[in-house]
UniProtKB/TrEMBL annotation:
<feature type="domain" description="NADH:flavin oxidoreductase/NADH oxidase N-terminal">
    <location>
        <begin position="8"/>
        <end position="341"/>
    </location>
</feature>
<dbReference type="InterPro" id="IPR001155">
    <property type="entry name" value="OxRdtase_FMN_N"/>
</dbReference>
<keyword id="KW-0560">Oxidoreductase</keyword>
<dbReference type="GO" id="GO:0003959">
    <property type="term" value="F:NADPH dehydrogenase activity"/>
</dbReference>
<dbReference type="Pfam" id="PF00724">
    <property type="entry name" value="Oxidored_FMN"/>
</dbReference>
<keyword id="KW-0285">Flavoprotein</keyword>
<dbReference type="InterPro" id="IPR013785">
    <property type="entry name" value="Aldolase_TIM"/>
</dbReference>
<keyword id="KW-0288">FMN</keyword>
<protein>
    <submittedName>
        <fullName>Oxidoreductase</fullName>
    </submittedName>
</protein>
<dbReference type="InterPro" id="IPR044152">
    <property type="entry name" value="YqjM-like"/>
</dbReference>
<dbReference type="GO" id="GO:0050661">
    <property type="term" value="F:NADP binding"/>
</dbReference>
<keyword id="KW-0521">NADP</keyword>
<dbReference type="GO" id="GO:0010181">
    <property type="term" value="F:FMN binding"/>
</dbReference>
Length: 361
């Protein structure tokens, strides 16, 4: 690599972890587990990205408790039995020179729902559904489960579930951990006035609504090795009046920086069906840029409709972000990083078996 090398393919050091490039496989739910266990599907799905040169690979959301799953088929990290299959995947990825992180999540009121291709709305008890929880008793929509408002004891248990899952992530050999506080899931529900009508220390003011996330991050950072990076995913805005917005995201970013977070993964939406999103190429990059300019010492990752290497490189050159996460582009072409390198005139270090490929975008 030289100074003339596109930023997309320059390394980035995060604590003791050096990423070979800035291309990140974004967490993508696969709804293909049983009892939260990874299987051969996950090995092949995640392993292919390491073979083709992605700088960092994230698993899909791994639930920190059984009731925190989005669907009955979600990946999990609440039980020691889930360590061995995840460790096998991590060993394979490391053997290819890859790096892998796990996204830890609790779905809250958006739990116990069908996988997209199996149905819509709440899964009934006879099909494996369960009682969901949330900041208050308001459902995401009329077809989603009605949550039970969480007691202070339940809030404390959720925080400890994140800690226990983090410890398992270290045992399994993950290189990074991401706390999922976006897309309308539990930690995001506490952040937004549209899902949090509590009147205690976890509701009302900005300071109260961010309390749970800060407690979770603080506890996770305490047990996650300091030489390994900690990511947090946020929805920068609810895209709905009266909800979470960019100004609150910037304020929270400053607090998370002080808690030892290394990278903020900036997405948006997912909190309410009343959202009105105006999608377009790199439509969420502006939110990431706001955070980067307000808290320049904090690493920032952007995601969303960044479909070409030229667009990804432009965002990095502008200083809008430090990392580029892609989801659907990797589903369409698991060798996206290899193809992007060809397009930008870079020789990417990929598995020897794939070096003969000269794919063109």
């Amino acid at each position: 690599m030289t100074a003339a090398t596109p930023l997309l393919f320059q390394p980035l050091k995060l604590q003791g972890l050096t990423l070979p490039n800035r291309v990140v496989v974004s967490p993508m739910c696969m709804y293909s587990s049983q009892s939260g266990l990874a299987n051969e599907f996950h090995l092949v799905h995640l392993g292919q990205f390491a073979l083709a040169g992605a700088g960092l690979i994230f698993t899909e959301a791994a639930a920190v408790s059984p009731e925190g799953r989005i669907s009955p088929e979600d990946l999990g990290l609440w039980d020691d039995a889930q360590l061995v299959p995840l460790g096998r995947i991590n060993d394979f990825i490391h053997a290819q020179g890859g790096r892998i992180g796990v996204q830890l999540a609790h779905a809250g009121r958006k739990a116990s729902t069908f996988a997209p291709w199996r149905g819509q709305g709440a899964v009934p008890p006879e099909q494996g559904g369960w009682q969901v929880i949330g900041p208050d008793a308001s459902a995401y929509s009329a077809t989603f489960p009605v949550p039970q408002a969480m007691s202070l004891e339940e809030i404390a248990r959720v925080a400890q579930a994140f800690v226990a899952a983090t410890r398992r992530a270290e045992i399994a050999g993950f290189d990074a951990v991401e706390v999922h506080a976006a897309h309308g899931y539990l930690l995001h529900q506490f952040l937004s006035p549209l899902a949090n009508s509590r009147s205690d220390e976890y509701g009302g003011s900005f300071e109260n609504r961010v309390r749970l996330l800060l407690e979770v991050v603080r506890a996770v950072r305490r047990v996650w090795p300091l030489h390994k990076p900690l990511f947090v995913r946020l929805s920068a805005t609810d895209w709905a009046p009266g909800g979470w917005d960019e100004q609150q995201t910037v304020a929270l970013a400053g607090l998370l920086d002080k808690e030892g977070v290394d990278v903020l993964d900036i997405s948006s939406g997912g909190l309410t069906p009343a959202q009105r999103i105006t999608p377009g190429p790199a439509y969420q990059a502006g939110f990431a840029a706001q955070v980067k300019r307000a808290v320049p010492a904090l690493g920032v990752m952007t995601v969303g409709m960044i479909d070409t290497p030229e667009r990804a490189e432009g965002l990095l050159q502008n200083g809008d972000a430090d990392l580029i996460a892609l989801a659907r582009p990797f589903l369409g072409d698991p060798h996206w990083a290899q193809a992007a390198a060809v397009k930008l005139g870079v020789k990417l270090d990929v598995a020897a078996q794939y070096q003969r490929g000269t794919r063109v975008v």
